[in-house]
Structures are given as structure tokens and as C-alpha cells.
């Protein structure tokens, strides 16, 4: 990467959070004009991308396992902030925003990020390889999280309408944190080699582990000054995202209602917005034949979306009015079940071709179709 690229990236990631905060202050009391709302939407997207960038800078400096936690927490703050702001607006389906957003994140990661990564990687390299043991453990953790938080509430009888009782919700929150913490320890401390990119022969068969991803035999962590600057800008970006979302939430709900779309589409929009940076990073790694990293990003994002978001929402419900519906609808459960089966079949061989990516992307398309028109 040349210096011009680095300078350009540095400039926009510094300018965008500051502009977003200034726009927030300037329009907080008056933001009804369409032009102002458009500017708020653009600033919101830019602040999300900048926040993830600065979280990655801080994560690179502090190293593992704290680096992964910082990035996951930053993304979760964005997701939780968007969900809570929409829920607090009291819309017609506020009780299902958390469920719809988390489920959309699972479908986008399982089928969108994974499918696109496998398709792009296999199209360029014919076959792509990854460590089935590490990826399989990540997949198993996500499946367990989804079952406890999204599937089980639909079948319990102590509370009605796909909801948990306070005791059950507390258990789900603790179980989610436990599963997420156990996986982070496994990935970053106990069995780190299982999650490193791998080399393969012409038939896509595993031949070794790549321990130096950039090929220069050393990492180039940011300086202390860059780290502190990114930490401050990360805070600015996160504050901007949460409160810009609050300003924009009534417009999003009205637009969905005016278009005659189900309220669940709002959750899909939030998930796409939050997962955009991870999607871009996953595709870039796939083009470099680092599909293991792409899969780490995909399943790690799904894991954080459930394992950190659900406990955060559970705590927030102590102070918020209304109910929290977590149980999936029958159509959603069918899509989840099919996606889980396909994901298991995709991971098991430890290598994939373009067809595998196409299958996942078709499932993502099916999810989008039934979200728009149930």
C-alpha cells in the first residue's frame, strides 16, 4: 500500500467522525427537511465505516485477544445503539427489532459474506482451502447461540408470543456471553493455529499454515499517537452513530410503512449497514486466497451479533418498557435450518468451489425475498 493511499484513508477517517458530530449538534433540534435527513443518512453510513476502521487500528496496537474484543464490542455498540433507538421510538414492531436485526445478521454472514467470499475466491483461484476444524468450531458456536436465543423462545410455554420470561432471558444472556467468551479464548489463545490462513495444492488440499499474512515477516502496528487518535475518533464516531440513528429512526419507519414493506425490513437494513465493513474485508481476503480469514470474519460477526447484542438488549430491557420478542417465525426457522445444513456441508471438506458460493448466495436472495414479501 503506497503512502498516498494511507494518507487518503487517514484523512477521510479523521474528517468523517468530526463532520458527523458537528452535523449531529447542528441539526439535533431541527432535522425534518429532506436535505438534512439525506445528509444525516450519509453521515451515519460514513461514521459506521470510520468507527470500524478506528477500532481495527486500536485492535492492531493492543494485540490479541483484546484486539478481537475491541473490534467486536465496537461493532456491537453500533448494532445495539441502532436497535435501542428504533425500539425507543415505539413503532409498530419495536418488540421484534432486536430479533429481526440479529437474524438478518446471521443470514447475511452465513450466506452473504460466506457465499460471496467463496464465490470470489474460487473464481480467481479455482479452489479455496480453509481449516475445517477451526471453522467448524466457529460454526458450531453460532448454531448453539442461535438455538438458545432465537429458536428456543418460540417453543417455551412460560411466556407467550416467542418471548422469554425474565429468568429465561437472563439465562440466555449469560449463556451467550459464556459461549462467546469461550470461543474468543479458543481462537486467540488456546488453539490460534486453527484459525490462521492455510496453503493448499492445485487440488485445494491443505498443505500448511500461513503465519505471516502480509508476507513481510513482521507486523507494522500503529504508533502510540495514532492509537490514541483512533481511540478518540472511535468514541466520536460511536456517539455520532447512536444519536444520528435516533434522529433518522422515524424516517426509516415511515419510509418502510409508506412502501408497504414489513417492519422486519428495518432489521435487514440495520444488519447490512453494520456488516458492510466486514463484508468488504472478507472479499478482499478471498481475492488474496485468504478464505480462512474471510470465514473468521463471517462467523465471528455472526457470533458477536448474537453473543454480545442479546445480553446488551437483555440488560436494556430492565429500564425499557414493552416486550422483547426473540422467537423466530416459522419461515425464518426454515431458512435458518437450511442455512445451517448448507453451512455444515460447506465447511466439512475444508475446501470449496464456486458452486458452494452460489448456493449460499441463493439462500441469501431467498431470505431477502421473503423479508420484503413474506
From TrEMBL:
Q: List the InterPro entries hit by this protein, alphabetically.
A: Alkaline_pH_Ca-Antiporter, NaCa_Exmemb
Subcellular location(s): the record lists: Membrane
- Membrane topology listed for this record: Multi-pass membrane protein
User: Which key words are in the record?
Assistant: Membrane, Transmembrane, Transmembrane helix
Q: Which domain of life is it from?
A: Bacteria
User: Which stretches are transmembrane?
Assistant: 12-29, 35-54, 66-89, 101-122, 134-155, 167-186, 231-249, 261-283, 295-319, 331-348, 355-372
* Predominant localisation class: membrane
Its GO CC terms are: plasma membrane
Q: Which residues form the Sodium/calcium exchanger membrane region domain?
A: 35-188, 230-372
- Cite the Pfam families for this sequence: Na_Ca_ex
User: What is the protein name stated in its UniProt record?
Assistant: Ionic transporter y4hA
Instruction: State a single Gene Ontology molecular function.
Output: sodium:proton antiporter activity
